[in-house]
Amino acid sequence: MTTLEPVKVGICGLGTVGGGTFNVLTRNADDIARRAGRPIVIQQVAARRDNPACDLAGINVTNDIFEVVRNPDIDVVVELIGGYDTARELVLEAISNGKHVVTANKALIAVHGNEIFQAAAEKGVMVAFEAAVAGGIPVIKSLREGLGGNRIQWLAGIINGTGNYILTHMRDEGRDFNDVLAEAQALGYAEADPTFDVEGIDAAHKLTILASIAYGVPLQFEKAYTEGISRITSEDIEQADNLGYVIKHLGISCRTDEGIELRVHPTLIPKQRLLANVHGVKNAIEIMGDAVGPTLYYGAGAGAEPTASAVVADLLDVARDMVTEHKYRTPYLAFSGIIEQSDQAPQVLPMENIVTAYYLRLMAVDRPGVLARVATILSEQGISIEALTQKEATEGELVPIIMLTHRTRESSMNEAIRQLESLADVAGSVTRIRVENLDDNA
Amino acid sequence: MTTLEPVKVGICGLGTVGGGTFNVLTRNADDIARRAGRPIVIQQVAARRDNPACDLAGINVTNDIFEVVRNPDIDVVVELIGGYDTARELVLEAISNGKHVVTANKALIAVHGNEIFQAAAEKGVMVAFEAAVAGGIPVIKSLREGLGGNRIQWLAGIINGTGNYILTHMRDEGRDFNDVLAEAQALGYAEADPTFDVEGIDAAHKLTILASIAYGVPLQFEKAYTEGISRITSEDIEQADNLGYVIKHLGISCRTDEGIELRVHPTLIPKQRLLANVHGVKNAIEIMGDAVGPTLYYGAGAGAEPTASAVVADLLDVARDMVTEHKYRTPYLAFSGIIEQSDQAPQVLPMENIVTAYYLRLMAVDRPGVLARVATILSEQGISIEALTQKEATEGELVPIIMLTHRTRESSMNEAIRQLESLADVAGSVTRIRVENLDDNA
């Protein structure tokens, strides 16, 4: 069957994803060779320590990752060490040595991707990163190739499993954020320092990558708006439920006439939407194209073998395209000439300029005229109210007022909230959660 | 930017999908050229009549589809005429003339695919058919490339929009099959002769294609089991709802030690599953891989531009790979050497040999001992009951007995039903609907 030379792979890093990749490549080697038309063999592995899940008998193992990128017998370097600086140095040296690169490193691509793609283009090598976004879900391939006939209008995704695990359990069990976070940490779903996940940085890395591929613009992680879920209360989850919504931590990118929205924040989603029904550590991304309409991609966003699944898919692409002239390959960010023409690309919108609907919750003294004052402030900012509920209370007591607004500009909402918080009748700060109201009916 | 020669396309058929393809290629031409690195131009269109949705000014139009496949200026023939015989002849002649082929024709691929791929392999040309399954959802690409590292274990999908539209409205509005079918016909969602859609033939075509790609076996449409939705009653939908299930028309293919299951039939799905929440004309396919676990792909399964989205994605693949040697291209059915080695491939299981859980509804006279007789028959066939409900009634009246069984072999269930229907206490025939109980937790 197989008549072509094997593709020789060097794996840098043998942690969770490295171990998974090693095992999938080994276990499914025969099927993979039948798919690629040639074997994909592990030529060398660089690891600082053993991974007990992997049987390394007969494998060339080094503890120096740079040995792999300098190994003349290696065609493709698989970077699975994570982090920024060393990974950047490793990948750039691999490229400089003419090797193709496969990486699962979202931080590296989101932050150093423009530089890496520029270097790779000059050397004519591939850099593949399906595993960097949403683990095993083939969303990069779907967006970059499968939807290639479309002008992408927006995308919205649950792209951090830790955050979704926490929100799912807060909702199902009526528990508090800190309580569920502690459980997630005990189960290994959250890191000891959970900032990266729960504050939305990890999701913003992934969103940055998706948006660049969707619209053909350079990576601009530094312009992403990021808001975490640590201030979401079980009260807000319950109120959202009463209104027919579920709160999810979404990454949203929308192409508007003014520019590109790039934002990660807690979001109310109508219950009947598929995204609202994605639970636990699972990920899902909804993508709207002008021809196809809404599509959705769901699966495991992390974990050893789900992520390995994406790494191996990239290796299959490399195996097929390594003989192809570079100009015929799919561009890294879907469109050719992105970085060279970045001055002509649409700009990322400042958060003040986005337009969305809002959920607001404020605690007000239940006395005559309060609602009128609240409504006047919103009205003066051009914000119209879609729904309002106020619990009954004894006059003079604090009572929550819950509102859903129609779409308005964030800057108007900021000003309205400033004024609401300065009202004598309003206690504490106003809770504001954006509502996902992207058009699902193209 | 663009330095490569344009790719010259001939479109055969300018109906719904042909018109959509023409319009998407025209409207998004600049973006498509930036993606492909070269323009994709419509060199000729063959149509028996005008499509008022298309502006054909300046286009070379013929009414002879065979002129397109003989046109020496055309690189890629896009077959959008549908049907079996003429489409087969057209595609085989295009291949014989050394042209690549893109088709949306599921019937053609499911029935004549083995012959077509064999001919194309001999000529070294591509035959792409993303649009043949689930319209705009890039599920062929995801299964064949994105999940290429996996051993696929099963897949299950809502792959006929007409059937899903009917079942959705039957459930939401408590209406009967014939009533909703008439409405779907009036709205253009169902054909005047709905057999192809509601009896599952269209879904079986698509399932056949998906299964071949999933497991690397030849296309075997003639071995697919097909059961339609025309006998589903609103009573069964309501009973399923009470038990926590939704009835969907699923195509299911599962790889077992004994062979490959290939079956289309109404199916009970637990309400919380994403597949149960796919409504109206939308499609979704869940795919289980050994590395990635469950993944799901959702979107529009039909319509002019959703299907065009898939056709254009295939054209982009052809544009990139037409310079590549054939042996480096992704095999038509994911694995190389499938048709040549078909004697070694796993066989499609006869329906009698599948193993699944069941929902049963029977009308029995409410008299002492009936339940015991029913339970004895099931027990003697080795079938265990998971749940049983019997409505209260006056003794001697007919009353429905509803049961959910654990997994059992179809042949045992056939025998049990034969015996149940021969009981004097049981009136009429036993309704049997299979329950989707594929493992979602790999």
UniProtKB/TrEMBL annotation, chains A, B:
The UniProt record gives the binding positions of NADP(+) as C12, G13, L14, G15, T16, V17, G18, G19
Can you tell me which residues bind L-homoserine?
E191
Q: Where is the active site?
A: K206 (proton donor)
Q: Which cofactor does it need?
A: a metal cation
Q: Name one Pfam family in it.
A: ACT
Q: Which residues bind NADPH?
A: K106
Q: Which residues form the ACT domain?
A: 359-435
User: Which GO BP terms apply?
Assistant: methionine biosynthetic process; threonine biosynthetic process
Against InterPro entries, the record matches this protein to:
ACT-like_dom_sf, ACT_dom, Asp/hSer_DH_NAD-bd, HDH, HDH_cat, HDH_CS, NAD(P)-bd_dom_sf
Enzymatic reactions: L-homoserine + NAD(+) = L-aspartate 4-semialdehyde + NADH + H(+)
Q: In which pathway does it act?
A: Amino-acid biosynthesis; L-threonine biosynthesis; L-threonine from L-aspartate: step 3/5; Amino-acid biosynthesis; L-methionine biosynthesis via de novo pathway; L-homoserine from L-aspartate: step 3/3
For molecular function, the Gene Ontology terms on record are: homoserine dehydrogenase activity; metal ion binding; NADP binding
Give the keywords, sorted.
Amino-acid biosynthesis, Metal-binding, Methionine biosynthesis, NAD, NADP, Oxidoreductase, Threonine biosynthesis
Q: What EC designation does it have?
A: 1.1.1.3
Cited NCBIfam families:
PRK06349.1
Hey, which family's this protein in?
Answer: Belongs to the homoserine dehydrogenase family.
The protein here is known as: Homoserine dehydrogenase
